[in-house]
Design brief:
With about 675 residues, the chain is an alpha+beta fold. The chain is built from 17 helices and 25 strands. It folds into five domains: about 50 residues, no CATH class; about 200 residues, no CATH class; about 110 residues, no CATH class; about 140 residues, Immunoglobulin-like, CATH 2.60.40; about 130 residues, no CATH class.
């Protein structure tokens, strides 16, 4: 009843204030929302009045002589207007939870003052866990500014020279205005005796996590930053169900290594609580050995090189969990009872790749600096016409610009397909190792078959290939590697009309934000922007009991939908229902470019084959949408909106419609 009265009160206040809302907040101060934000589509007057968003900013903290801990926080909207945490003076109740911890002298991780004990009912196992509190006392001290007095007190033995941190995380609930729940967190470092902070914990930046996690939002979504996460995820905290530590450096390595952990490969499981991470596959190529994905060299984290300069048994043993440091098993029979000597052998970088240095031990052969390199270019296409065999001129060189003998390559293929309005079917692979050498790494290849008599418009030719290379040959660290060239694509006209490239839907650079180096089908196919679509088109499909369409519009949506699919989606030996997308699937711009998710689709886009699907062929819009929206009702809706004249999806889902693609996916 109280909530309903407040809702009616806000509706009344909104009605009074809407006309003058812009005047109240000042010209040009409206928060800037994008098409991916739900507030972008709300009534502008309502947005001006409610001012969605939440920003926490802790400005001070202190610990009194009796151990009382207080912090001061400013709670505002994105334009700096103070918010009433009770939701009386300004819309939306703001909930806050607080944490406080310190870094003991000589150590590098936090110890929390706020803890709890959890007991697993099944095993009786108990675990102490760092946590937060929300039972303290708030005192208003200004416009949206509050003093918070913790319930917990610092002990009499407090080290007043140690680095301390207070953190707040929480949300602002605007659901009664049909707007989202806004979330934020913040932290504040201080030394109780007033001296400057010199010791911090800042190894991996939140921005690095958000490459894939879009955004980092754990435990209900209020924890948004690594700086806050590492306050509780320390050796102090363990999981009562599994007994595993949730220390960040151990837990995160194990989660991201998942299915390649030696203990998992041997038949074990890695889980925390009810979450089993044994099937997690790291999206970056090829797996969690690619340390620089999280430990980014250009990171803003103050201790970004800690993984190189301060190796430890806990961090290294998290992935290499078949090593027994106490006995030396798995460690060249060398017991290691402390971390004191780890850096003696495991230096940041040695003289050779694949050595015992940290960078060397994690070298991925595909990215070896000693690979000669394969660099492709397609220089031109001549003789292209209906019923004719075009000639493709291309070059193959190494990264020094020296010619490569194409005839001796392990693989070298060309693919020709068109028209670019919409490819259809899988083009045959042309073995280009038989091309005629013209000198200086330049080759000419005449297509073995003629273009169709009905060929018209623009076509494309793409190239892929690699050499097999042995690295550190003759040494104990000898490695085999594929030296792979980046795909190239060139467009050409077959009838004299202007050359038109295939529409650009995604960008390989966006794929590589998570995947780092897209490496599909053995690695030789690595350009999603132009190359992959030559085969993954509306007319491509697999056959048999698990046959399905290969069109990117449907195939990629299904893969990334993964565990949320309502059916098994099997390709080869992989059931993609095991895939967990780390980001937010509503963020179409994570992959799409130039608003390519918007309707209507361009003219000439063809229906999609989907063997064993609920509908085949299926309209191109319905194929894309039902890649994620897999229910029978969704497929039926797509069918109902299709006639012999085509799809009418854009009537309701066009860019200006109330249920446009962007609006329907707004967050």
């Amino acid at each position: 009843m109280q909530r309903e009265h407040r809702r009616i009160g806000w509706v009344f206040l909104c009605a009074l204030a809407l006309a003058g809302a812009a005047h109240l907040i000042g010209s040009g101060s409206t928060p800037q929302f994008t098409v991916n934000d739900k507030a972008f589509y709300a009534d502008q007057n309502l947005v001006n009045f409610v001012r969605p968003g939440l920003i926490f900013k802790i400005t001070a903290a202190e610990i009194a002589a009796d151990g009382t801990i207080t912090a001061r926080v400013k709670v505002t909207d994105p334009r700096g207007l103070g918010l009433d945490r009770l939701g009386v003076v300004t819309p939306g109740v703001v909930a806050m939870t607080w944490a406080v911890a310190y870094i003991p002298q000589g150590q590098t991780q936090y110890v929390s003052y706020v803890t709890r004990v959890r007991v697993d009912a099944a095993s009786g196992r108990s675990a102490t866990q760092a946590t937060g509190e929300a039972t303290g006392t708030f005192t208003p001290v200004g416009d949206g500014e509050y003093s918070y007095r913790f319930t917990v007190k610092a002990p009499a033995s407090i080290d007043r020279k140690a680095t301390h941190v207070v953190a707040v995380y929480g949300n602002r609930n605007l659901s009664e205005f049909d707007l989202p729940i806004d979330r934020d967190d913040d932290f504040f470092l201080f030394v109780p005796d007033g001296s400057p902070v010199t010791v911090t914990r800042d190894v991996v930046s939140t921005a690095s996590c958000n490459r894939c996690h879009d955004p980092l939002a754990l435990h209900g979504g209020n924890r948004r930053s690594m700086e806050v996460c590492v306050i509780c995820h320390t050796p102090q905290t363990s999981d009562q169900v599994s007994g595993n530590t949730v220390d960040m450096k151990v837990m995160i390595h194990k989660i991201h290594a998942g299915k390649i952990l030696p203990s998992v490969v041997a038949g074990g499981k890695y889980f925390i609580g009810n979450a089993d991470y044994s099937e997690v596959g790291f999206p970056a190529y090829p797996d969690a050995r690619n340390c620089s994905v999280c430990h980014e060299p250009n990171s803003t984290a103050k201790q970004k090189d800690a993984h190189l300069t301060k190796p430890s048994r806990a961090a290294c043993g998290s992935c290499h969990d078949d090593v027994n440091f106490a006995t030396g098993v798995g460690h060249l029979d060398l017991p290691q009872l402390t971390d004191n000597q780890c850096a003696n052998c495991h230096t940041p970088q040695g003289e050779l790749e694949f050595d015992a240095s940290i960078m060397g031990a994690h070298t991925i052969a595909r990215f070896s600096q000693s690979l000669p390199g394969v660099v492709f270019d397609i220089l031109g296409v001549t003789g292209a016409a209906p019923n004719a065999r075009p000639t493709v001129t291309f070059s193959v060189k190494n990264k020094k610009g020296e010619p490569v003998d194409a005839s001796k390559m392990a693989q070298l293929r060309l693919y020709i397909i068109g028209p670019t309005t919409d490819y259809y079917g899988i083009p045959p692979a042309i073995d280009a190792r038989t091309a005629t050498a013209k000198g200086n790494g330049i080759y000419e290849m005449v297509a073995p078959t003629a273009l169709a008599a009905t060929a018209k418009g623009s076509y494309s030719v793409s190239i892929q290939g690699y050499n097999n290379v042995t690295l550190l040959e003759g040494t104990q660290r000898q490695q085999d590697a594929r030296d792979i060239g980046l795909n190239k694509t060139r467009y050409f006209s077959v009838d004299g009309t202007p050359v038109v490239a295939r529409r650009k839907i995604v960008d390989t650079a966006k794929c590589n934000v998570c995947h780092v180096s897209l490496q599909i089908h053995g690695g030789a196919r690595n350009d999603a922007t132009e190359f992959c679509s030559a085969c993954h088109n509306a007319g491509a499909a697999t056959t048999g009991a698990n046959g399905h369409g290969l069109a990117f519009s449907q195939f990629i949506h299904r893969i990334h939908r993964g565990e949320e699919l309502t059916y098994d989606f099997i390709f080869g030996n992989t059931n993609f229902r095991e895939v967990v997308y780390p980001g937010d699937l509503r963020n179409c711009d994570k992959c799409h470019v130039n608003g390519s998710q918007q309707l209507p689709l361009p003219a000439g886009v063809r229906d999609v084959l989907d063997p064993n699907g609920p509908l085949t062929p299926i309209g191109p819009t319905a194929a894309a949408c039902t890649g994620c929206h897999t229910s029978q009702q969704a497929v039926s809706h797509g069918l109902a909106m299709t006639s012999t004249l085509g799809e009418s999806c854009s009537v309701c889902h066009g860019p200006n419609a109330d249920t446009s693609v962007n609006r329907s996916h707004a967050r």
